[in-house]
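Final report, Chapter 2: Outcomes

The project's central promise was a pipeline that accepts a single protein chain and returns its three-dimensional structure in a standardized token representation, suitable for archiving and comparison. That pipeline is now operational. To close this chapter, we reproduce one record exactly as it appears in the project archive, with the input sequence first and the structure output second.
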Amino acid sequence: MMLLNDSESNRGTGFTNEERRALKLEGLIPPQVETLERQKERIEKHLAAKDDDLERYIYLQSLLDRNETMFYAVLMSDPARYVPIVYAPTLATVCRRFSHLYRRPRGMYITLEMKGRIAEVLRNWPKSDVRTICVTTGGRILGLGDIGVNGMGIPIGKLQLYTACGSVPPAALLPIQLDIGTTNAALRADPLYLGLRREPPPEEELDAFVDEFMSAVQEVFPGCCVHYEDWRGTDALRYLAKYKDSYLCYNDDIQGTAAVTLAGIITALKVTESSLSDQKFLFFGAGASALGISDLLVSALVAEGMSEKEARERITMIDKNGLVESSRTDLIPEQKIYAKDTTAEKDLLTIIRNTQPTVLIGVSTAGGTFTKDVVEEMCRITERPIIFPLSIPNAECTAEDAFAWSSGKALYAAGVQFPTCATPEGRTLFPGQANNFYIFPALGLALYATRAKRVTDALIIESAHALADQVSAVSLEKGQLYPPQDDIGDVSVTSAVRLAEFIFREGLATVERPKDIRRWIEGMTYNPSYATPADVP
């Protein structure tokens, strides 16, 4: 029974007759021996019978509790179908209701009350070779704001994609919630809320807590990469700047979003046959994601020969208080370097007319703000405007509207996947999904294999080029800015190979370089199968 209750080892009806006899399973499961494919057929029928994706999410998580191999076999069989169920956009609903949906623990919860003994608590995790931790405070989850411990759904889902899309062995992955309290009074009053019922601590206390956490991770899991996810914007920027040169870490909201956006822009420029240095960028939103994308664009432009000053002049930002300009007193230091020496303005359309951008990027969480007038004005400025409404779950405009208002000329990608659109002339237009799952699983696999020392800006830029270079000429003709989601597994491995080559070339690896990097990496990847004999856990 211990074997049947261990999700990593359980095969259910997949145990052979010989295994059933040897492992004392006879009589404990139905007599029919089934292949993984036959079991998957049953799972797919169960999923098809569910009313909505939330119910499918719940079912898939319960499947993971019973049979890890089957869970990943299902996800990896059809990523385009299943990734939106275990990740965005379904995760927004899951996180909103996490405490009410809770079934059983997954990952770890490190609270402020554990300060002084975080390393001791981390040793409670049953695996010793943890290579990546995805950690959140729940301070800025999708468009939901501060939801505290309900944000745990995000690191769980992110790491499931490390395996489903990047083939990183799941035993090497650990989701962690740093429970620092929440500013959300409604959650603190909810009798079913699972987190600490307190306000977050002052910055000085939080810094000491995070310092101890980062040190404890390296003490318990040496060489482990810390993947920051959905921290409050100012904290996200501050901690990335603080730790990136001393720990193996990266922030997916900042760097992953930046890389996948840069990749889409690079691909779009192949369609327009223009260069990055020819573009002007307007960000609707000036938070951590906008700043991360902007900083990476500056690095990429500098690599093409521009000065930092010239590169920053190409970038304009708007937030809820209007244009980011130098007379404002509410800007953080990271925003000030992009502030324009001009008059205040709040109207998006007016700002577009004044700045003449060729690329419009939405990272505002304000759905529907790219109106018909906005899209039409972008078309007046440039023949093929690049429009990326990246907010999840509510995009600044839909693909259908962007294509209709631009007469099919917009080069479009959103944070969520929209269906294909048909034009009156009979053309089929393919909206892209500028989602981080094109970046972080491949990066995670490369870091896992090379045991890298640091994640540098140059490595993030390389990940963007590795992705963009996998968009075929046929896809470009259709206006597709990213590879097909069905191919995400192969895309991630190919990107990981290129990133590993870069890591070795830059002297960032801590293992010996193999002769055949692709074969070496493929030999480390996780394959959900019953090919090896079953053992008692």
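Archive annotation: The first strand starts at residue 108 and ends at 111.
This record, like all others produced under the grant, will remain available to the consortium after the project formally closes.
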